[in-house]
Amino acid sequence: MAGFHETKAGPQSMMRIAINRTMGVPLATQIRDQIVAAIASGQLSRGDRLPTIRQLAEFLGINRNTVAQGYRQLEAEGYVSTRAGGGTTVAETAATADALRAGALRELVATALRTAEAAGFDAREFAELAYYQSAQQPLRPWILVVDEYDGELASLSDAVRAALPDSTVHGMTLADLASLTVSDRAARLRRFDFALVPFYCLEHVNSLLAGADLPTLAAGVGPSLKVLQRIRETSADKRVAIVCSEPEGPSYMERSLRRAEVIPAEVRHAHLGQDSLAAVLLDADLVIASEGSVDTVRGLVDAEKVITYSNILSEESLATIRSYAEFVSRQRAQQ
């Protein structure tokens, strides 16, 4: 019989650590296995910060040395890196991404096998059932979503996941894609069935994907009608600040508004990290902030004068994405 599992959400909200005190596996190894599993599943990405040793030990109610031992295992194996004053983060090196992924998958299997053996099953039984189960699973399309800005990338990726819950969706910023060498890029993109890219960065993405055997779908992305209506109703004769997380973002946002015939009388642009950001915000009567910048903006000015510029996928784009994902699934089933 499986033992009682103590499951607590740690400070890293996307990661859950499950401690089983009766399975005979050291707690440090269980912590290490859980973090490797989070990397393999995409819950943790390169550069993500792990909870501190003290935080995780307090959440799990275990000794700090046990957590430290698990972290040392992860660092020795190349899954994480630790810097003085910078904490522990998932390894950043793009060249190791595929090796980490393969290693993470091996560790997931090893962890599952240990659990099965603790429950009284042998390796042969485990392998037979794993093979049978994998043969029954539908082949999910793998979709790469690319956008220029982190906040918009997260929003677009979430929209695709909601529209296609049976697909595996990964997001990558344009800068991250451009930073990869040609060989690393080919290796990273090999597992995807197609890329989804907003119209405004399609040309740049296509130049980076030249030679890669990866179909690209252009997505119609823009503010919702509700957002446009609110901006139209509240921006007349007002000083408007348009804010994004990246320097180029406000220009794109203003162009989108003008295409929708929403034209504020006086507009200033600002981005996170800009020295004059606070002054621009305080001087504005209305602030239109991208999803990637809105939390920071609301911390600097009255939230009542802030409108979130929420990008959404057009219905036409959603229909195209669904159709292509179904086509990919049919093609895979026939192979």
From TrEMBL:
Domain of life: Bacteria
GO molecular function, one term: DNA-binding transcription factor activity
All residue ranges annotated as the HTH gntR-type domain in the record: 25-93
Keyword line: DNA-binding, Transcription, Transcription regulation
InterPro entries assigned to the protein according to its UniProt record, in alphabetical order: Tscrpt_reg_HTH_GntR (IPR000524), WH-like_DNA-bd_sf (IPR036388), WH_DNA-bd_sf (IPR036390)
Listed transmembrane segments: none
PANTHER family referenced in this protein's UniProt entry, alphabetically: HTH-TYPE TRANSCRIPTIONAL REPRESSOR YTRA (PTHR38445:SF9)
Name of this chain's protein: GntR family transcriptional regulator
Lineage of the organism: Bacteria, Bacillati, Actinomycetota, Actinomycetes, Pseudonocardiales
